[in-house]
Structure formats: C-alpha cells, structure tokens
Design a protein that fits this description.
Helix content is 46%, strand content 13%. The chain is an alpha/beta fold. The protein binds nicotinamide-adenine-dinucleotide (NAD). Nicotinamide-adenine-dinucleotide binds next to helix 4 and strand 6.
C-alpha cells in the first residue's frame, strides 16, 4: 500500500506530480539537486494553489494543509521511507541511471520506482536497477500540466510485476487520474496520436489546403477540442515537439517525418509562447 510518495526532479513536471499526491492526502517528498531548486518547486505548487484560491475553488487553509504534506529537500536520502518514487529528472539516460542507482541503495526493498520519461524505453531504464528491484520498476507518463491533465500512461517494462502494475494503477486512481496501460513502445500511446495529428495539420497548411487559423477552427468547432492544434503546439513549444518528432521518425519512418514548418520555427527561434512567438505572436508575454 502506498502511503508516502517521493518525486525526484522538482522542475516543470515533478513539482506538479508531487502536488497531485499531496492534494489527495499523501505525505510527499520533493527532491532536486539542491535545497534551493527543491524549494522553487514547492513555490510553484503554492502559486498553482493561489490561483485556485483566487478563483474561489480553494480556501487558504486547504492550501496550507496541502503544502504541509510536502517536504522539499536537496537530500535524496530523505526519500528512504517512500513506498513509491516517481523520477522526473532531465530526459537523459545517464542522469536517470545515476538516480536509480542511488535510490536502489537508499530505498526499502518494497519501494516502487516509476519513471516519467517521455521517450526512453522503460525496459532499458529498468535494466539499470538491481535484480531485486526489476519487478518494481515501471513507467508513469504524466501529461503537462500534470496538476490538471488526468491521463497517466502506465507502462510496464519487460520484467515489471503484475502486482506493481496494479498498485500503481490503484494509487493513480486515488489521486483522481485516469491511468491507461500501454506497451513499452516509442512514443507510448499519446505522443503517437498527438504527433500524427499535428504533422497532418502542418501538411494541410504546407499544401495550401487551409490556413493555420482555419486548421485551428477545424479542431475547435469540428473536433470539439478546447483549443486549436497550432495554439496548443505554441504552448508545448516547438523545440520539444521537434525533438519528439525526430525520435518517432527514427522509430516509425516517414509517417512521423518532421514538418519543414516546425523546423523553420525552431531555426528562427520562434519556439512558441515561451519565446513570445510561434505560429502566433504573443507580444511581451
Ligand atoms: N515537459 C513536459 O511536457 C513533459 C511531459 C511528460 C513527460 N516529461 C518528462 O518528465 C521528465 C522531466 O521533465 P521536465 O519538463 O519536468 O524537466 P525540467 O527540466 O523542467 O526539470 C527537471 C528537473 O530535474 C532536476 N534534476 C536533474 N538531475 C537531477 C538529479 N540527479 N537529482 C534530482 N533532480 C535532478 C533538474 O534540476 C530540474 O529541476 C523528463 O523525463 C521528461 O521527458 C516531460
């Protein structure tokens, strides 16, 4: 049974993943390479909760109660007693490997280690943990922003135990997520659908079939999406999107060939909302 949850990496994903657990009453430890960076992750959590208070959806007391369940730390050993640890560090195999090696030495025998990787094989990552831990290693792919998006892809590695899959699925339901089991393939499920769709949207514009704005209208008014796909791509940022395209292209060939439009945007520094411009302009934001 999962009572205490650790998250390694307090960046864009880790801070929000930890918040999802703290919100539902779990004792949570949020770790990064220094106390300062871990504290920044906790500050981001406070900002997310402040927005909810502003909207009248939460009281200041609720916020304090949630944050009191989060321990931010620069010391990985503070995760020793965690039942589940989610790794959300940089998308670099060797960085993740060194985190697992340290966790393996620190953690209880029963601790489950999950990776939030978007593109590295879960089975390859699982090969870096001890033989005893292999049955307790799994992928949990949260979506951004993790505190809002309900989908979590659950990806067993070749040697992941069925008990681990069930425990992780159950705890994700406890924190009000929608877990979906997928095989350990490149892009898992979500990124294969999303990238196939947006690359086709890019082709519509490149072939002159319709404009960027009209593709976005098709998504909103024809598919019922809350926003157009190009507006969404500007938010997720084109350098990250292109990186995933290249990984999918390598794995599956032509159907994921990167779009010349996206390459041009990246080459010209129009990375999306974060750089002030992408498909659309965002002024001084
Ligand atoms: N950003 C997304 O939209 C998204 C979506 C799904 C999955 N992911 C995956 O989630 C993971 C994290 O992505 P992110 O966008 O949050 O990255 P990020 O760069 O925002 O955060 C990564 C954090 O890891 C920390 N870190 C690095 N080495 C560490 C170590 N040894 N110990 C502890 N902390 C360490 C960094 O200091 C940083 O704070 C990646 O594997 C990424 O592929 C990202």
């Amino acid at each position: 049974m999962i009572k205490k949850v650790g998250v390694v990496g307090a960046g864009m994903m880790g801070a929000e993943i930890a918040l999802c657990f703290a919100r539902e009453g779990f004792e949570t430890v949020l770790n990064d390479i220094s106390q300062e960076i871990a504290d920044r992750g906790k500050e981001k959590q406070a900002q997310i909760l402040d927005k909810r208070i502003k909207k009248g959806k939460m009281s200041p007391q609720d916020k304090e109660a949630i944050l009191s369940r989060v321990t931010a730390t620069g010391n990985l050993e503070d995760l020793a007693e965690c039942d589940l640890i989610i790794e959300a560090v940089l998308e670099v195999f060797d960085v993740k490997k060194s985190v697992y090696e340290k966790l393996d030495a620190i953690c209880k025998e029963s601790t489950i280690i999950a990776s939030n990787t978007s593109s590295i094989s879960i089975t390859k990552l699982a090969s870096t943990v001890s033989a005893e831990r292999k049955g307790k290693f799994i992928g949990t792919h949260f979506n951004s922003p993790a505190s809002v998006m309900k989908l979590v892809e659950v990806i067993p590695a070749l040697l992941t135990g069925e008990e681990t899959v069930c425990t992780v699925t159950d705890v994700l339901k406890e924190i009000k997520k929608e877990p979906v089991r997928v095989k350990d393939v490149v892009g898992f499920g979500l990124n294969r659908i999303f990238h196939a769709m947006y690359l086709e949207a890019c082709r519509l514009v490149e072939e002159g079939v319709c404009s960027t704005e009209d593709v976005d209208k098709i998504c909103k008014y024809g598919l019922g999406h809350p926003m157009g796909i190009f507006a969404l791509l500007d938010i997720t940022s084109h350098d990250l999107n292109l990186n995933v395209d290249q990984i999918l292209f390598e794995a599956y060939g032509d159907r994921f060939r990167p779009s010349p439009q996206i390459i041009r945007l990246v080459d010209s520094g129009r990375l999306g909302k974060k750089s002030g411009a992408g498909f659309y302009d965002y002024g001084e934001e």
